[in-house]
Design goal:
Layout: E1 2-7, H1 13-21, E2 33-40, H2 44-53, E3 57-59, E4 62-69, H3 81-87, E5 92-99, H4 114-145, H5 152-166, H6 178-185, E6 194-201, H7 216-225, E7 228-232, H8 234-240, H9 245-254, H10 261-273, E8 275-281, E9 285-292, H11 297-304, H12 306-310, E10 312-319, H13 320-326, H14 329-334, E11 339-341, E12 351-357
Parallel strand pairs: 1-4, 1-5, 3-9, 5-6, 6-7, 8-12
Antiparallel strand pairs: 2-4, 8-9, 10-11, 10-12
Helix pairs in contact: 1-8, 4-5, 5-6
The structure holds guanosine-5'-triphosphate (GTP) and magnesium ion (MG).
Amino acid sequence: MKVGIIGLGQSGKSSLFHTLTEQVPEAPSGKPHRRLGRALVPDERVETIARIENSKKKTYAEVNFLDPDGFAPDSLKSLTSELLGMARGSELLALVIRAFSDPSVMHPLGSVDSMRDLKNCFGDLVIQDLAVFESRYERSSKSYNRGDKSLKLEVETLEKALFILGEDKFLAQEEWSKPEKEFLEGFEPLTFTNGIVVWNVDEDAAFGRGGVGVPVEAKELCDKKGWGIGAVRLSLESEVMEIEGEERRIFSMELGLKETVRERYLNSVYDRLGLLSFYTAGPKEAAARTIRRGETAWDAAGKIHSDIQRGFIRAEVMSFDDYVKYGSEEGVKKAGRYRVEKKEYVVQEGDIFYFRFNV
Ligand SMILES: Nc1nc2c(ncn2[C@@H]2O[C@H](COP(=O)(O)OP(=O)(O)OP(=O)(O)O)[C@@H](O)[C@H]2O)c(=O)[nH]1
Ligand SMILES: [Mg+2]
């Protein structure tokens, strides 16, 4: 799973990347490029399973982040096509908006005005999509008018898309039929992508879960676009990530941070994308894996290994809650709570699987 970080120059993109991936910033290269990093999703259930099974290895689900890096600090006065090109194809966009005042950090537009930046950045996403669809429309409408009627769906869909974008709306704000959607998705439009705004506030800002620190106006705009928004004190959280091990937890608690930004943020990534965690348990490995809501046991098997999917016979399943309640797989079996499911079984949050397969 891939999350593309976007934002104006000096808004805090790399700070976010750093807090999430713990990857230390590299020396400036001066050339625009994408920096990739991964974050392991903290998961108490993996710890529990590993304890019960005495597993040798613990495997966590992971999320990949990319940080557009190497742009001259004052060159990103808007979300340029080069920057957005790097984020296209991500499953989630994380838009960092500068809401910290620190005068020692320059703002590419010369002043801090978070609402202006948010509106402009949303506008930039629309502009980029418009550019993509306009050039395509120009070509296909020509062929269509010359008599290629197979392009009917394409031309009509493009007309609808251009109209929506022309109204300054996101494509995701509109209803689409399945064929329309499939056609549009081929272009990986930015305004079709799920998104979260990361409102990067001052160290001493009032803060909490449920949007404290985020102005009502910003929240409303995001709601309208179908995006999430949350306030983060990135410079503070970035410092916390410099601290190793147990000290980090203690320091976080002192600062009143119940969880690190990584835990909070990754949880909201899961929510927004409709992701679930499922598990496998054994003496070799206790592992968490990610799947989309609505996907099946067969999809889950494929996440582990293509052979397991290919040779799928059946899935044996217990819920994590039963597993803890009855203390072991044996206990779950004795309680009559162990199930055998077919390919089509829809995976539930916290399922622990054992796949029978034959290749
Ligand atoms: N005071 C304060 N400074 C911050 C905060 N977040 C980031 N900064 C500082 O702002 C500067 C830019 O932060 P980065 O994370 O590098 O921003 P960026 O968006 O990656 O910048 P570019 O890659 O140059 O576009 C750095 O000096 C950070 O230390 C914050 O919440 N408060
Ligand atoms: Mg950066």
